[in-house]
Amino acid sequence: GIDLVDSENTLSPYSDIFGLKRFRECELIHGRWAMLATLGAIVAELSTGVPWDQAGKVELDGARYLNFNLPFTISQLTLLEVLLVGGAEIYRNTETDLEKRLYPGGAFDPLGLADDPDTFAELKVKEIKNGRLAMFSMLGFYVQALATGK
């Protein structure tokens, strides 16, 4: 198998301070967020016709979903999201084992995709590659929005 954690470290002097494991964890988490953001930007723009970078300016008074008014505001939804995601991150960071912190399994793997060790290793590589691609995709979205305003 591929040893992704304890491979030769060439990131000196930062590796002495943070360790390669911390860089790996940050890259994976940022990649996951970028995958969600990339999909969200594309789906939001295709479904509403509003450019993804302007979507937050559309409805500040009330939230709508499928042309139905929701009984809460965008500010309340934002606060709820911060609390829920913050709580999930606090819970995730209480785990001391890096592998369990990054790949929790259990309820987060209801289809049992990671039961086979070889398949699990392959899925890890696919996830990091897709995460890197999504990070560059979001960079492209930002550059396009800044350059063209669209």
UniProtKB/TrEMBL annotation:
Q: Name one GO molecular function term.
A: chlorophyll binding
Question: Which keywords does this chain's UniProt record carry?
Answer: Chlorophyll, Chloroplast, Chromophore, Photosynthesis, Plastid
Query: So where does chlorophyll b get bound?
Result: 32, 98
Matches recorded under InterPro entries = Chloro_AB-bd_pln, Chloroa_b-bind
* Pfam families on file: Chloroa_b-bind
Its localization reads:
Plastid, Chloroplast
Please give the GO cellular component terms listed in this UniProt entry: chloroplast; membrane
Q: Which residues bind chlorophyll a?
A: 27, 30, 89, 126-127, 130, 132, 144
**Where do the TM regions start and end?**
none
The UniProt entry's GO biological process terms, in alphabetical order, are: photosynthesis, light harvesting
Identify the PANTHER family for this entry. CHLOROPHYLL A/B BINDING PROTEIN
Q: What is this protein called?
A: Chlorophyll a-b binding protein, chloroplastic
